[in-house]
């Protein structure tokens, strides 16, 4: 049996209030009021001091080192200067006939909200509105209404500073409340004897806050672009590192597979080179061949997965340090003046070390061709006890070089480091004191007999 459930129609909500709760307009208004409460009412007088500017910012970074500590507090100095301006305009623009004390009180009420933006930004907005009311009633005479000259500067400065320190939504709510205050004062308290400056305040503050909002959007866009560029560069370096590791694995696969194949063939042919070999010797060579074949099979299974489907193993043998003269001849033909110096007793090294050393010198000279065209380079190879030393250094490019340096991401250095790390070596790379570049590498090579009995 199959049970079939039919949805029951819901009864309409009683009254118009439930329908209003579900309406998009109500939800939009509710969300707007929630934003107003969160931005301007919730913890409005919280202590949020203005931090100093960054020492490595675009402005402070261009200043001398002795001026940077003072430039870090430049925003605080600007706010203090605006507060002094509001104080002076408030005192001089009040025109109080009762003496200096009321005028000084009006000036202080104009300067206090501006200074409060340094520590309590949202609270400074409410202080500015309250100070505007108090100053207007303290003045009590004819003149600007509802903002006296000092109050006008004070409130405009507070709006701009708080908008810079908060987000555009907070700035929008402050402007809306400023408009509401201007309309209320014009309608309720305004009269024919007052010149209302609510309109100029609304227009000027709207333009100022719009400029601040554009600055916020531009800064956020720049930060997003910078973060995206950082992620992209990290991914590019990671991809280059993986590609280099794949190339190294392919080369090692070819080198090790060749030697293991030779071991297997020699182990199979060795008993036929001895007349009447003892059974123990035949079994030993058979075991060697079986182990070599098993190791070769496992090597192909593990390392063979790094080959692409279209990868073709090179027919020619992999290059070694013996082929370095041909490489130097090629770069000389490309216009690079390069010298070679070899110290120590030249000896045959493991093929992996020879191949990595050749690739490191090749990449270092390629970087010289790209980034320092026309410069002189020197390749030093040192056969020392316990390893091989490499040093590739180039002079700074000439000022009047015919070929301009080509930009690069520095991934060649990443590949060289990966090769050196694979061989447990050491590497340093960086600019020289005269403006050139130097790459120094040491590749350890175990002495004969250290690898095991």
How would you characterize this protein structure?
The chain has helices at 15-21, 24-41, 68-71, 74-94, 100-116, 121-139, 149-165, 168-189, 198-269, 279-303, 324-333, 351-371, 411-422, and strands at residues 144-145, 195-196, 337-343, 376-384, 387-394, 426-431, 437-444. It is an alpha/beta fold and 453 residues long. A five-stranded mixed sheet has the order 3-4-5-7-6, covered by helices on one side. Strands 1-2 form a two-stranded parallel ribbon. Helix 6 (121-139) runs antiparallel to helix 7. It is elongated.
How many β-strand stretches?
7
- Regarding quaternary structure, what we see is single chain
Task: Give the strand order, joined by hyphens, for the main sheet.
Answer: 3-4-5-7-6
Uncertain spans: 1-7, 11-20, 449-453
Order of helices and strands: HHHHHHEHHEHHHEHEEHEE
Individual helix count? 13
Strand content: 5-15%
Question: Radius of gyration from the CA trace?
Answer: 40 Å
Question: Keywords, please?
Answer:
about 450 residues, disordered N terminus, two-stranded parallel ribbon, five-stranded mixed beta sheet, single chain, alpha/beta
Produce the secondary structure layout:
Elements: H1 15-21, H2 24-41, H3 68-71, H4 74-94, H5 100-116, H6 121-139, E1 144-145, H7 149-165, H8 168-189, E2 195-196, H9 198-269, H10 279-303, H11 324-333, E3 337-343, H12 351-371, E4 376-384, E5 387-394, H13 411-422, E6 426-431, E7 437-444
Helix pairs in contact: 2-8, 4-5, 4-7, 5-6, 5-7, 6-7, 7-8, 7-9, 8-9, 9-10, 9-13, 12-13
Put the structure in a nutshell.
With 453 residues, the chain is an alpha/beta fold.
């Amino acid at each position: 049996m199959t049970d079939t459930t039919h949805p029951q129609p819901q009864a309409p909500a009683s009254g118009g209030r439930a329908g209003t709760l579900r309406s998009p307009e109500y939800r939009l208004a509710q969300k707007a009021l929630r934003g107003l409460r969160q931005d301007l009412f919730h913890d409005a007088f919280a202590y949020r001091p203005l931090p100093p500017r960054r020492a490595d910012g675009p402005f402070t970074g261009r200043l001398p080192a002795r001026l940077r500590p003072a430039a870090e507090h430049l925003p605080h100095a600007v706010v203090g200067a605006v507060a002094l301006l509001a104080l002076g305009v408030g005192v001089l623009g009040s025109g109080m006939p009762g003496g200096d004390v009321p005028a000084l009180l009006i000036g202080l009420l104009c300067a206090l909200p501006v200074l409060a933006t340094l520590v309590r930004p949202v609270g400074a907005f409410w202080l500015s509105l309250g100070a505007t009311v108090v100053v207007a009633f303290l003045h009590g005479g004819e003149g600007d209404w509802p903002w006296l000259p000092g109050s006008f500067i004070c409130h405009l400065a507070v709006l701009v500073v708080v908008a810079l320190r908060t987000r555009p939504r907070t700035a929008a709510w402050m402007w809306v409340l400023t408009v509401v205050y201007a309309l209320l004062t014009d309608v309720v308290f305004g009269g024919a004897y007052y010149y209302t400056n609510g309109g100029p305040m609304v227009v000027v503050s709207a333009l100022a806050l719009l400029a601040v909002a554009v600055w916020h959007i531009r800064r956020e866009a720049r930060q997003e672009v910078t973060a995206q560029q950082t992620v992209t560069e990290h991914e590019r370096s990671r991809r280059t590192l993986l590609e280099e590791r794949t190339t190294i694995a392919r080369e090692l696969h070819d080198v090790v597979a060749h030697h293991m194949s030779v071991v297997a063939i020699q182990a199979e042919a060795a008993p036929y080179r001895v007349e009447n070999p003892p059974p123990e010797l035949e079994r030993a060579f058979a075991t060697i061949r079986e182990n070599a074949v098993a190791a070769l099979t496992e090597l192909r299974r593990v390392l063979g997965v790094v080959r692409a489907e279209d990868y073709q193993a090179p027919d020619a043998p992999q290059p070694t340090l013996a082929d370095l003269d041909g490489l130097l001849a090629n770069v000389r033909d490309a216009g690079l003046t390069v010298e070679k110096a070899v110290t120590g007793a030249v000896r045959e090294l493991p093929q992996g070390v020879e191949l990595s050393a050749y690739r490191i010198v090749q990449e270092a000279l390629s970087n010289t061709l790209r980034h320092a065209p026309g410069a002189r380079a020197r390749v030093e190879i040192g056969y020392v006890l316990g390893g091989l030393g490499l040093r590739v250094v180039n002079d700074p490019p000439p000022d009047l070089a015919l070929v301009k340096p080509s930009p690069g991401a520095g991934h060649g250095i990443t590949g060289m480091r990966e090769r050196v790390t694979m061989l447990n070596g050491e590497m340093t790379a960086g600019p020289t004191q005269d403006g050139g570049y130097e790459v120094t590498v040491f590749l350890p090579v175990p002495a004969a007999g250290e690898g095991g009995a």
